[in-house]
Amino acid sequence: MRQLVRYTLIGGSGVTLDLVVFLLLHNWAGMDEQIANAISTTLAITNNFVLNARFTFERRDRLFVRFLRFYAVGLTGIALTDLLFLALTDGLGINANLVKVGSMPLVLALQFVLNKKWSFA
């Protein structure tokens, strides 16, 4: 339970970074939502890996391999969000900002399980 709390708190910092960068790239710079999502999520993944390796899972061995696994798990979040963009933004006309925010709890839950069982096992 302690790990889940730490993962969620660290995830909060990643969510904030992800959302701020996404909003800036998509709304301010006019970047396509899928490209903005890939960039913002990559920054958040890197932030979260560093903090989770240190504080949540307390692992300092095989960091490069663990980062590659963590990033692969992060790619599942990018893919899931992109599928939601296609279905909800492109398909139904729902605002991309709402889709991005709405996808975050689902992505967080999926990634916690995958990271606990694979990236930091």
Automatic annotation (TrEMBL):
<dbReference type="GO" id="GO:0000271">
    <property type="term" value="P:polysaccharide biosynthetic process"/>
</dbReference>
<dbReference type="InterPro" id="IPR051401">
    <property type="entry name" value="GtrA_CellWall_Glycosyl"/>
</dbReference>
<keyword id="KW-0472">Membrane</keyword>
<keyword id="KW-0328">Glycosyltransferase</keyword>
<keyword id="KW-0808">Transferase</keyword>
<comment type="similarity">
    <text>Belongs to the GtrA family.</text>
</comment>
<keyword id="KW-0812">Transmembrane</keyword>
<keyword id="KW-1133">Transmembrane helix</keyword>
<dbReference type="Pfam" id="PF04138">
    <property type="entry name" value="GtrA_DPMS_TM"/>
</dbReference>
<dbReference type="GO" id="GO:0005886">
    <property type="term" value="C:plasma membrane"/>
</dbReference>
<dbReference type="InterPro" id="IPR007267">
    <property type="entry name" value="GtrA_DPMS_TM"/>
</dbReference>
<feature type="transmembrane region" description="Helical">
    <location>
        <begin position="67"/>
        <end position="88"/>
    </location>
</feature>
<feature type="transmembrane region" description="Helical">
    <location>
        <begin position="94"/>
        <end position="114"/>
    </location>
</feature>
<feature type="transmembrane region" description="Helical">
    <location>
        <begin position="35"/>
        <end position="55"/>
    </location>
</feature>
<feature type="transmembrane region" description="Helical">
    <location>
        <begin position="7"/>
        <end position="29"/>
    </location>
</feature>
<protein>
    <submittedName>
        <fullName>Dolichyl-phosphate beta-D-mannosyltransferase</fullName>
    </submittedName>
</protein>
<feature type="domain" description="GtrA/DPMS transmembrane">
    <location>
        <begin position="6"/>
        <end position="120"/>
    </location>
</feature>
<dbReference type="GO" id="GO:0016757">
    <property type="term" value="F:glycosyltransferase activity"/>
</dbReference>
